[in-house]
Amino acid sequence: MIKRYLIITAILITTNIFSFSQSITNSPYTRFGIGEIDRNGFNHSKAMGGLSTGLRTRNQINYMNPAAISSQDTMSFIFDIGISGISKELSSETDYSEYNDFGFNHLAISFPIKKWWFASAGITPYSKIGYDIMQVSEFEPIDTIDEYKKYFGRGGINQFFISNSFKLFTNFSLGFNLNYLFGTIEQYDQAYLETPVSYCTVVEDKITLSKLNYEIGFQYFNDFQQNYFIVIGLTYSNKTIFNSTKQTSVFMTGNFNLYDINVIDYLNNYQNVNVYDTISSVTDNNYKLEIPAKYSVGFTFGKKNKLVIGMDYSYQDWSNITSLNNNDNFDTDQLFNFGFEYTPNIFALRNYLKKISYRTGFYYNNSYLRLESKQINNYGITFGLGFPIGNQRTNINMSYTLGKRGTTSNGLIEENYSSFGINLTLYDFWFIKRKFQ
Prior knowledge:
Blueprint: H1 2-20, E1 36-37, H2 43-46, E2 76-91, E3 96-114, E4 117-138, E5 146-169, E6 172-193, E7 199-224, E8 228-237, E9 240-241, E10 243-254, H3 263-269, E11 276-284, E12 290-291, E13 294-303, E14 307-317, E15 332-342, E16 357-371, E17 374-389, E18 394-406, E19 414-429
Antiparallel strand pairs: 1-4, 2-3, 2-19, 3-4, 4-5, 5-6, 6-7, 7-8, 7-10, 8-13, 9-12, 10-11, 13-14, 14-15, 15-16, 16-17, 17-18, 18-19
C-alpha cells in the first residue's frame, strides 16, 4: 500500500516537473535536424552501452524493444521514474566553454493484462535541442566596429508510448509501441553591432509538431544447459512525417545583447521598455519535418541471475530525409552498442555487495549529421550499478557515461561530456487474489 501512495505522489510531482522542463543539452550540432536523439532507454540499458534490442529482464521496463515487456511476471506491477544530468566541455581551435544541467528524464509503468499479454506506458524525451552560438566578424562599412551574429535554440521532441507485448509461443514474443511524438522547437537568429546606439535584428522561428508512429519488436529466447540463456531481438519503426507548423517573425529591438540579456528573457520581459517593432510575421502550416524508418538487431547471452553479454546494431538512412526544410547535412546513421552485466550472487544473505549488479558498455555512432564534408561521430563508455531493495526486484539503477562528439578540425566543435542517470524501479505484486482477508 505504501508503494501505491508513493507511485501516485511521484506521478503528480513528475507531471508538474515535465510540464515545465526544458531539454538538458547544449550542443551546436542540435541546430541541425531534430537535435540529439535519445537512443539508450532507461538507466539499466544506458549502463550497458545502450543495449536494448536483445535485452530481456523480468524486473525492468525495456520500451526500446516492446517484445521484452512480456518477460515480466504475470501478477506484477512495475513503476519506473528517473532523472538525468550532464556536464559538457565544448572546444574549437580557438575557444572553450563548459555546460552543466540536470532534470527529469522519464516516467513509466508496466503490468500484465493476461498471462500472454502485457502492457506498458510512459513518457520520455525523444530528441533534445539546445545551443547558443556566436560568430564575430568585421563590419565592412566601419572597420573599427565588429558585427555579431548569435544563434540560440531550445526545445525538442517528447515521446509518450503505449506498449503491448505478447507471448506467442514458448520461446517467442512480439510487441509493438504506439508512440505519440510531440514538441516545440524555438530558434532565434540575431544580428547586431557592438555599439549601444545600434539595433538588434531577431528572426524567431517557432515550430510545433506532433505525430503518431509505431514500432514493432520481436524476441526469440531460449535456455540451454539449464542455467544459460540466449535472446535474439529485432525492431522496426516506421518513417514519420510530422504534422508541423512554423511561425517566423522578424523583430527590430534594442541592442539587449550588450547587457548580457538572454533573447528569451528579453522578448518575454523587456518589450515595454525597449524599442520592439515587428517587421514581419509569417505562418507555414505545411512545414516539412521527417524521421526515417529505423532497423535494429541485437542479441544477449549469459548465465541466469549471474552474467549478461550483448550487442546491438541500428540503422537509419537520413540521406533522402527533409528535416526543418533541410536535407543538405544528412547521412546514413549507424549505431553499435556493446554491453555487459555481472551479479556475483543475487541470493546472498549476508554480503550485500554480492547482490549488486555491475554493468559496463561501449557505443559508437556514425550520426546522421555531415558538416564540412565530415560525418559527426559520437562514442563513449558507460558504467552502472543496480542496487536491489526489499524483494530483490525493486531496485535503484545508476548509470554514468563518458563520451565524445565531433572534432575541432575543419572549423567544427568537439564535445567531451559526462552524463549520469538514476532511476527508481518499484516492483510489486498487485494482482494476487487472496483466499482469506
